[in-house]
Amino acid sequence: MTGNRPVTGRPRTGRRWTGVPAIFAGIALLGGCATAPETAPGAGSAAITDRYGMAGETTPARVLEAGARSKDWWTALGSPQLGEVIRIALEESPDLAEARAVLDRHQAESDAARALLSPRLGLNARTERQLFNSKGFGFSGFPSRTFSIFSLGGLVSYDPDVFGVLKGRAAEAGALADKARWEADAAALTLSANVALEAVRLAGLNAQIASAEQVIEDDRKLVDLAFKAEALGGISRSERVRIEAQLAEDEAGMPDLLRQRNESRRRLALLAGREPSQWTPPDFQLSDLSLPAAIPLALPSELVRSRPDIQAAEADLRAARLAARATEADPLPKLNLTGNRAQTANQIEDLSRSDSRGWSLSAGLTATLYDGGLSRANRRAAEAELREAEARYRSTVLAAFAQVGDLLSSLEDGEAEVAAYQRAVDSAQQDAEISLSGVRLGGTPLLRAIDARRELSLARRNLAIAEARRLSDAIGLFAAAGADWRSSGDD
User: Fold this and answer.
1) Is the pTM of this model over 0.85?
2) How many helical (H) and strand (E) elements, i.e. helices and strands, does the chain have?
């Protein structure tokens, strides 16, 4: 209780409050004095460092702008088409709809648990037709009568929750609702990242297909040259057949690339919540996607407060702590207050008469003396669940640190990898052009030109794969660092 409050209203006239009004006022006052239990302490007590790298490693230079976060993180990739697909996915994905439905259910359960802390008001209306058998009660000489009874009144009941069991359960339900909210955020962040990753995969496949198509086109030119050279006696028939075989080999690799591209398109449609037969995703190209010069990244201590999966694990731990407290208090005695006020008469027109009024006030106390070990077993289960939640929380935090560290390292290495493959492509391009010109002038063997084209093809494909991998690492880093998936207009 928070203490007695002065009652304001009309001046006193010397009359006391009697009967039902006092019952209703007393129970309502008890309801107003109920206070929530102390919230379980936060779970963010795991050891937090100031870096992501392994002991002895140099922190990558890309760690910058600590604490900066983007509302629409995917806009950093510079593709309006990607932004549109992600928007569709966030609106129409059935997986995200399921996560939001789970959140709505937990929020409703939390509201229901809090409602149990308030007094409950009811209305009773009853009618009876009864035969009074006077002989059955030992009265002789009195005739038995058949009469009606009408009753109309209100009922108030309240559990003051002396030991805080209901308050603890309400707080637990609130923590579970928080967990569901963070899990819905995590699902949305994961969905947006998966859409971006699939778009990058599709763009990489398109680059590989374009490279393969260029190689096949060059192979066909070389085959034409081979036929001309064979006719002039410049090469043997076996050499010409070898060139044709290389063309056939390169053409044979194309169907697999096309199959992978079709699979990627279907996965994008499914991620967007669209039927693949009725929706075609944009034909993403690597040139449409750019790697931002600066990737905002929170420091480790801020990561714990920003990643939705860590927040969900913390809310789960908080719920487990509150559940353990409530389980400890569950076997303690329970008090219930009930007030009833009714107008009762055997004629319906007499219900409004003052002498038909009646009321009752009752208090009930129940306590368990023996439950066969049920309470003890429930306590052990709650304690074990708390230990599980603590382990899950710590595991989630450690996995987050390791994931960010891996992606940082991979992204840093990817910079050097892309630069090396770009140099390889430039060199192979020059070599292929020189070799092809030499073949036309008759100074370079045709097979040398074929080898040069092979090297160029391999370098182009490796460059496309490296660029796609670097973009994927950047997307993974945005997601792993807890980037906010919501649009700027959302709460």
Assistant:
1) no
2) 9, 4
